[in-house]
Design brief:
Layout (H helix, E strand, L loop, with lengths): L17 H6 L33 H50 L40 H48 L4
């Protein structure tokens, strides 16, 4: 009996959380552990001027100006971090797109649409699986009365099924490693968001 391809591979990983990923020993992804880019945002240092007395008008003006400049820099830093985390979500979409494209190819179905824009990584940064799809299925079985032809057909089916199992196992492994890479990006999102805290 010929086996079907990949009827129920999981294609959505959005339920992962950084917390759940940290509770377990992290397996390997399709990319190296430190593959994801760090934010280039620089948090401004604290205002070092001491707060002057209210009657010290000159130093009050200097202090208030320093506070305004600091707050403006903080706003820029916050906007930079927000842009980073938003683009990280796009990078997750690129991973999902690449995985779902591979599964669509396996099932001979239409591939998904590309994400709208690149994220922090270049468009198409995520590697496609290195899995060899089996050749075409053996086709229609011969007459059961033709023993020689049936034996040859059964041998082809056996070879095809073995190749299909290897292919499915390869794609499942690739999909599991993609989950790891998604969780790593989510961890970077959480870490970046936490840097905005006072």
């Amino acid at each position: 009996m010929q086996k079907k391809f990949l009827g129920a591979l999981l294609t959505v990983f959005m339920g992962l959380s950084a917390a759940s990923a940290q509770q377990q020993e992290t397996p390997a992804g399709n990319l190296s552990a430190g593959f994801y880019t760090k934010p280039s945002c620089v948090r401004p240092g604290d205002v070092t001027l001491p707060k002057p007395a209210a009657t010290d008008r000159e130093n009050v003006l200097l202090y208030n100006n320093a506070i305004r400049q600091h707050n403006k820099q903080l706003q820029g830093f916050s906007a930079c971090i927000t842009a980073y985390t938003d683009k990280a979500s796009l990078d997750i979409e690129w991973i999902l797109f690449t995985v779902n494209t591979a599964i669509a190819k396996a099932n001979n179905s239409n591939p998904p649409s590309e994400p709208a824009a690149p994220g922090n990584m270049p468009s198409g940064f995520y590697p496609a699986p290195d899995c060899s799809k089996p050749e075409a299925q053996p086709g229609v079985a011969p007459s059961v009365h033709d023993v020689k032809a049936m034996d040859a057909y059964n041998a082809k089916v056996k070879t095809f099924n073995a190749s299909a199992e290897t292919y499915q196992a390869c794609l499942r492994s690739y999909t599991a490693r993609a989950r790891v890479d998604v969780s790593r990006i989510k961890q970077e999102q959480v870490w970046a968001s936490q840097t905005k805290a006072p």
